[in-house]
Amino acid sequence: MFRLDGKVALITGGARGLGLAMATGLAEAGAEVVLADILRDEGEEKARDLTARGQKAHYRTIDVSDRDGVFAAMNEVADALGGIDVLINNAGVGGKSHGGPFAAQEMTPEHWRALMSINLDGPFACCQAVHPIMKARGGGAIINIASVWGLGASSSMPVAAYASSKGALVNLTRQLAVEWARDGIRVNAIAPGFFDTQLAAGGGGGGGGPEADWKKKMREQIGERMPMGRRGAPEEIKGAAIFLASEASGLVTGHTLPVDGGWMAW
Fold first, then answer.
1. pTM for the structure as a whole
2. Given 3.40.50.720, 3.40.50.300, 3.30.70.141, 2.30.290.10, which CATH number is that of 8-256?
3. φ and ψ of 56, to 5 deg
């Protein structure tokens, strides 16, 4: 039930971090994977690495904030590989990107719009682009990568734009699940907690100041609030992705699955 042999899976933001971990997991389960990213050199290298291990992997440049480019890329991948059975909308940016983080009262319109464009508009464009492709094949599975901050607020960092984009993605997941169920398309989400990734490490800030204080508070919260008391390794998200992509979750749609070490359990 967990095998993906003969399936084509496209993972946005697949060149590194959680995207690469999920792509690797799906490839190990038998899928032919497409690492779709703006990071060409890393994406091509990781696709070669997977191929060298006997798996089927490709790289395709996709900028999810470019709607026309998304539609063109999805159609090109479908034409080249015979379709797309699984889409993982993983590409995104955090609250520290585009000049952030900002306290809500100080947030610039540019920061808000940039995060919405990439974290919400991008996944929606990908979903729209893949819908006719999946429908023509009798169905498919879409997995949106949300966040625990799409399920609850952050007290350790001011992330109003990020949390809003991920919260909207959670409810978009529900709505698309309802609208597309009769087309055979299941739409679910994963809400990761705190993982050791390049994105998380890169946003940690330098020396002192407010950003260092937020980082310290986050470390303290993970140790005190999270029942498992630690960050996750990227490989620990593989199982959730394989489950939601495969027939093992054949009756699951509209669901958001936290992978968070228990963060949202209380």
1. 0.93
2. 3.40.50.720
3. -100, 115
